[in-house]
Amino acid sequence: MADFWQKHWFGLAVLLGLLVTGVGTAVSHHTLAQNPTSPSGSSDLYLPLVIKPGTPPPQIAGCDIFPADNIWNTPIDTLPVHPNSANYINTIGANTGLHADFGSGLYNNGPIGIPYVDVPGSQPDVPITFIWYPDESDDGPYPVPADAPIEGGPDSTGDRHVLVLDRDACILYEMYAATPQGNGSWEAGNGAVYDLASHDLRPDGWTSADAAGLPILPGLVRYDEVAAGEIRHAIRFTAPQTQKAHLWPARHDASSLTGSNYPPMGLRLRLKADYDISGFPPEIQVILQAFKTYGIILADNGSPWYISGVPDERWDNDMLHLWDGITGSDFEVVDTSSLMIDPNSGQAKQP
Question: What total number of domains does the chain contain?
Answer without folding.
Answer: 1
